[in-house]
Design a protein that fits this description.
By secondary structure, the protein is α/β, with parallel strands linked by helices. The protein has a domain at 3-182 and 219-242: Rossmann fold (3-Layer(aba) Sandwich), CATH 3.40.50. It is 42% helix and 17% strand. It has helices at 12-24, 64-73, 88-93, 96-115, 150-169, 191-200, 220-233, 250-260, 286-289, 299-312, 314-321, 325-338, and strands at residues 2-7, 28-34, 54-58, 78-81, 120-126, 173-178, 181-182, 205-208, 214-215, 218-219, 239-242, 248-249, 268-271, 341-342. The strands form four sheets. The protein has a seven-stranded parallel beta sheet with strand order 3-2-1-4-5-6-11, sandwiched between helices. Strand 1, helix 1 and strand 2 (28-34) form a beta-alpha-beta unit. Bound molecules: nicotinamide-adenine-dinucleotide and thymidine-5'-diphosphate.
């Protein structure tokens, strides 16, 4: 029996990880510990809410007493930390919560893991810690971190702390650095769910700059499978990249998405670019593949499948997009879209 504290488990990847683990193993217990920020959503966990192996605890990872109480009450042996502020554009608008949660919050979790002698602390990190990657190269785990947005810097800082706790205190840690995840229950501020839900409503798709930036769009289920593998077979103290090995230009992603939803290219709007926008991420995934993992979806399958999930699950996203999201959308896109030229 493994008792896992899934911090940030009411968000996109964390909730998918909870399903994945409950559907794969009979003998594990998952305790979601989540602050329920704007991105946390108990609707994401509706399919497991009656499962006796699942428990929800509302709490902040920055609150040591609350984290300790959860670890003690549920006899936790493993922490998998998904909790973070996660949207680059919001980190540019207001970085404060990013630093608080990813730097101080990760430190608190590490302290608790050390005090309780946990069997494993696993940190969910990102390809963004490597910064922009020039054409012809892919980031390897031993490359230096070179983050360029407040979000990426907060995540890289967390990775450094996690590694320091391993080296200094012998804490049994592992780190996975995932690429851009897509799939069910992703808050519609990220590009794929934002564009899918806009396209469903025949609204414009605000493509930053020339749209030639490259990302590895990965199905969230593949990422969850890799995290589980690293928990079981990963070497303590090691970092594992988890991507697709195939980078896709944003405009190509948009075309796949529009085709899947049967919407025209005329919805595309090129708008003012994001400041400091990293043009390319690319991961070398040989190390995780050597553990016996490979991506289960091509990027095309992942993008099209995801677009169709949003088409078929309006109950999930319509209430999000009608709330405080509207203010965010106006601040982020209002002026950009008013001054954007449509496609010729
Ligand atoms: P998300 O924004 O959907 O969810 C984050 C969750 O963390 C939310 O449920 C939120 O309520 C919770 N949270 C935030 N601050 C908290 C705090 N102080 N205490 C407790 N809970 C808190 O994010 P996501 O896309 O699911 O990302 C999960 C993790 O994966 C993050 O660490 C992110 O950096 C990393 N990651 C994401 C991607 C991606 O493409 N989405 C790619 C690679 C890595
Ligand atoms: P995003 O989903 O924000 O992930 P990240 O910046 O963490 O990779 O964005 C993915 C790509 O899509 C990135 O190159 C920025 C671009 N993008 C747009 O062109 N328009 C948008 O409205 C958003 C949110 C992103």
């Amino acid at each position: 029996m493994r008792n896992i504290l899934v911090t940030g488990g009411a968000g996109f990847i964390g909730s998918n990880f909870v399903y994945y683990m409950l559907s794969r193993y009979d003998d594990c217990r998952l305790v979601v510990y989540d602050k329920l920020t704007y991105a946390g959503n108990l609707d994401n966990l509706l399919p497991v809410q009656d499962d006796p192996r699942y428990t929800f605890v509302r709490g902040d990872i920055c609150d040591r007493a609350d984290v300790e109480a959860a670890v003690r009450a549920h006899a936790i042996d493993t922490i998998v930390n998904f909790a973070a502020e996660t949207h680059v554009d919001r980190s540019i608008m207001d970085p404060d919560a990013f630093i608080q949660t990813s730097v101080y919050g990760t430190y608190v979790l590490l302290e608790v893991a050390r005090a309780f002698g946990l069997e494993r602390y696993h940190q969910i990190s990102t390809d963004e810690v490597y910064g922009h990657v020039p054409a012809g190269r892919s980031s390897r785990e031993e490359d230096k971190v070179d983050p360029r947005s407040p979000y990426a810097a907060s995540k890289a800082s967390a990775d450094l702390l996690v590694n320091a706790y391993h080296v200094t205190y012998g804490l049994p840690i592992t780190i996975t650095r995932g690429s851009n995840n897509i799939g069910p229950y992703q808050y519609p501020e990220k590009v794929v769910p934002l564009f899918a839900t806009n396209a469903i409503d025949h609204l414009p798709l605000p493509v930053y700059g020339d749209g030639r930036q490259m990302r590895e769009y990965q199905h969230v289920r593949d990422h969850c499978e890799a995290i589980d593998l690293v928990l079981r077979r990963g070497q303590v103290g090691e970092v594992y990249n988890v991507g697709t090995g195939v980078e896709v230009e944003n405009l190509a992603m948009v075309e796949i998405l529009l085709d899947a939803l049967d919407r025209p290219r005329s919805l595309i709007r090129h708008v003012t670019d994001r400041p400091g926008h990293d043009r390319r991420y690319s991961l070398d995934i040989h190390k995780i593949m050597a553990l016996g993992w490979e991506p289960g979806h091509t990027p095309e399958e992942a993008i099209a499948e995801t677009a169709r999930w949003y088409r078929d699950n309006e109950w999930w996203w319509r209430k999000i997009k009608s709330g405080a999201f509207r203010e965010y959308y106006e601040a982020q896109y209002g002026e950009r879209l008013r001054t954007a030229a449509p496609l010729p």
